[in-house]
Amino acid sequence: MDALRTPPTSPTAQNPSPAPGRTPYPRRWAALAVLAVAQFMVVLDSSIVNIALPDIGIGLHMTASSLSWVVTAYVLTFGGLLMLGGRIADLRGRRGTFLTGLIGFAAASAVAAFAPTAGTLIAARAVQGSAAALMSPSALSLVTTLFTGSERAKALGVWGAVAGSGGAAGVLLGGVLTGTFGWPAIFFVNLPVAVAVAAGALRYVPRSSGTRGRIDLPGATALTTGLAAIVYGLSQSHDKGFTSPLVLTALGLGAALLAAFIATERAVPQPLVPLRIFRLRTVTSANAVMAAIGAATVGLFFFLSLYIQQILHYTPLKAGLSQLPLALTITTAAWLAPRLAARTSIKTLLVTGPLLLTAGLGWLSTASVHGTYTGVILGPALLVGAGLGLSFVSVNVTAAAKVAPSDAGLAGGLINTTQQVGGALGLALLTAVATSRTGTNPSLASVDSGFQAAFLTAAAIAAAAALIAALIAPPHRPAHDSAGDQQGPLNTPPPEPRLSVPKPEWTSP
C-alpha cells in the first residue's frame, strides 16, 4: 500500500514509462489534468484571435492580408518548430522542456496584449508559437508514457477531446473576451492560466532525465524556413498571381529547403525526424489525415468568424456565443469516441469523422448574404463538431499506437506538426482562393462569394482526409480487456521497451 502512496525515489531513467508489472505513477491523473489544461491553452490560441481580428485591424491599422498573419505567425512557428521541441523534450527532459515553453508562452502573451504596432503583435505571436512548440510535444509524450494499456486509451481520449474542443472554444472565448473587455484580453487570459499550470506541473508532473544525443539544428532550420517560404508564396499568390516571379521563387525555395531537410535526415546520425518512424502505417496514416484536418479546420474558424461578423453583422460577443453549439458538439463527440470505437473500430471513426466534417463544410459553402444563423450556421456547426470530435480522438490514438516509449516525444511532435503545418498551408491556400473570388473592389456579395469558395475548398480537403483514412489506415478493432495493462478500447498493446533503455523509476516532482 505504501508503494501506491509514494513513488520510488531512485534516480530517473532515460524513459519515464513504467515497465510492465511495476506500480504506475500514482499522480498520473492529476498530471494529466495539468497537461490537458496546458494543451487546451495552446490549441485555444490558434483560434482565439479569429473573432477579435476586425477589432485588432482597427486598433493597429492592419490590412486584411496582414491580419491573416496574426493567425499564420502562430501556427507556422508552432508547426515548424514542433519536431525540434519534441526532440528537445526527449534529450533534455520532458518536464523541464514543458516548463520552459510555458514561461515563454506567458511572456509572449503579455507582449501581445500590450502590442503597440502590427509588427510587434505578429512577432509576439511567432514567439508564442515557438514556445508552444516546446510545450505541446513534451506534454503529449508525458501523457503517453505516464499511462499504459487501457488507461492510455482513456488518457488519449481526454487529450483528443482537448485538442478537438480547443479550437471551437477559442472562437467562443475570443468573442466573449473581445466583446466585454477588448481584444487585449484574449492574450491577458493566458497569464493566470499559465501560473496555475506551472504550479500544478511542479506538484504533480514527475521529473525525468533526457537521453544522450545531439539536436539536429540544420534539419530544424531547413524544415521551418522551407515551410515559411511555401506559406509566404501561397499568401502572396492572390495579389501577385501564382505565376509571378516572387511566388514561384518562394515556392521553389520552400520545396528545395524541404528536399534538403529530407536529405539531411537521411545523412545525420541523430536526425530531427528519423524517417524510420514512417514505416509504421499507423504513424503515416494518422499524420496524413491530421494534415488535411488541420488545413480544413484553421481555415474554417478564420472564415466562419469573418462571415458571422462581416456578413451577418454580429457583434464580437454574439459571434463568440454563436459558436457554443460547435464547441459542445466537439466535446460530446470526443467523449463518445472511445465508446463508439469499442463497438466498431478506430478506422471507422478515422473515416467517419472527416466525412462529417466534409458534409458540414459543404453546407457552409451555401452561406449567402441573406443567410440566417439557423439556416446556414447551426446545422453545419453540429456536423463539423461531430466530425472534429471523432477525428481528433481517432487520429491521436492511431498516431500513438505501436510507437516505442523512447520515441514518444518524436511521435507527439510529429502529429502536432502536421496539424499546425496543415493549418498554416491550408489558411494560406484558402485565403488565396477567397481573395481571388473577392476581387480588388470587394462588395458584400463578392466577399460572400469568396467565403463560399473557401468553405467549398475546405470541404474538398476534408474529403481527401476521409479518402486517405479509408485507403491507408490499418484496420484495428479494439479488444475489451480484463487486466489493467492489457490491450483495451482505443488502444494497441503497449510497445516493448528497448533493451538499451534501463527500467524506469518514478521520482516525485
TrEMBL record:
Residues 31-477 form the Major facilitator superfamily (MFS) profile domain. Keywords: Antibiotic resistance, Cell membrane, Membrane, Transmembrane, Transmembrane helix, Transport. Residues 1-22, 477-509 are annotated as: Disordered. It is a multi-pass membrane protein. The chain crosses the membrane at residues 29-53, 65-86, 98-124, 130-149, 156-177, 183-205, 217-234, 246-264, 285-308, 320-337, 349-371, 377-401, 413-433, 453-473. It is found in: Cell membrane. PANTHER family: BLR6921 PROTEIN, MAJOR FACILITATOR SUPERFAMILY MULTIDRUG TRANSPORTER MFSC. This is MFS transporter. Coiled coil: none annotated. InterPro entries: MFS, MFS_dom, MFS_trans_sf.
